[in-house]
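Let us practice reading a record.
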Amino acid sequence: DFYQYIIWRSEYEDMPENLTEKLAVVIESNQTIYHDRKNTPDGKKWYYKIEIQNQYGESKITEIKQGIARP
């Protein structure tokens, strides 16, 4: 069963662990949108992945997706 989502962000496409930051923890299973407004200058490329954790501590991680900051 769902426990939480963890949203990860990096400037690097391969998202190396030491250069990836935990951006947010979402505890509402029906939340499907997240707006990244943390130090996002216009036109900057970011890479994201979402970790989905269940109540037993097991995790699955999504594919890495690219986003571009906009005004």
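A brief commentary: The two ends are 37 Å apart (CA to CA).
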